[in-house]
What we know:
Order of helices and strands: HHHHEHHEHHEHEHEHEEEEEH
Helix content: 40-55%
Mean pLDDT: 78
Structural class: alpha/beta
CATH superfamily of the largest domain: 5'-nuclease
Shape: elongated
Amino acid sequence: MNRTLFPIRLVFVLLCTAGGWLVCYTVREWDNYRLTAAAIGFCIGALVVLVDVMLKGFSLRGLSALTFGLAVGSIIASLVATSPLFAEGDPEMIFLARLALFLICPYLGTVIALRGKDEFNLVIPYVRFVPHEVDVPLVVVDTSVLIDGRIARVCETGFLSAALVIPRFVLNELQAIADSPDPMRQARGRRGLDVLNALRAIKTLDIRITESEVARKEDVEAKLVFLAQSMRAKLLTTDYNLAKMAEFQGVPWLNLNKLSKSLQPELMIGERLEVELVKPGKEEGQAIGYLADGSMVVVTGGRPHVGQHAGVEIVSLLPTGAGKMIFARMASESDRARSG
């Protein structure tokens, strides 16, 4: 059971039990059956709680569909039952036929409404129920993610199936950064606003703005963690301190940096790369280059090509704490070695 709902359910069952006990004070004939009445009250409360548990995950849209199906089924049954088809005949047969109609038609209407994926505005003009399902995974977005910018490219690929929840105080913080007199902060804030507009332009992306306010900067991080915790959502951030705070509170968080590293292709000995040689190496004839993920490439015989893009072939890989150190040689030299 949900820890928040458990005390409420317990109090409800106790109230039902007490209600059964108190009923005996109003009905004098039941004065000797107080324990039985209390047990009946307890069973009724437990049955209601059991129904509540069984309806876990039943959405507001499902309730709307259930009500709509019952209403349409009842209207159809009423129209048929009052039609001339039932004007004459055996009263008992007419009663049974009408009873069957009022059982079958609402049932079929309810099943069709719950099973259907279409929106209600196809049936009822000018009324639109937006299908925000309860079981859609939610991701609360931090300001750092919008400033980072990579989230827009990830969402454009369609790999992120969750709904993005952007609190109002995150938008306010982003606007404050964009209005900062500091040119660096201003540029970062404007980039975040551009990323936000790019996210809004993705038609398949579900973006939800929550109306929440915070007064102080230090409250933003705590509010983000609380919001993700209360919505049973994941937290998307590139702020390491915020991520650790969320982890301590038991809130799962998504790491764009880890995602970026996991998408890097695995390098193999003998594979050829195109790398920019930026500086000479320590040994004679060596040159140093870097891959997009920051991995260092030490190229034997590459010193004459410093400042240029060169084709190299991997000869060995050395794992390090910061990633991988790659040792390579010029592709032209490897071709000559094979021909020789």
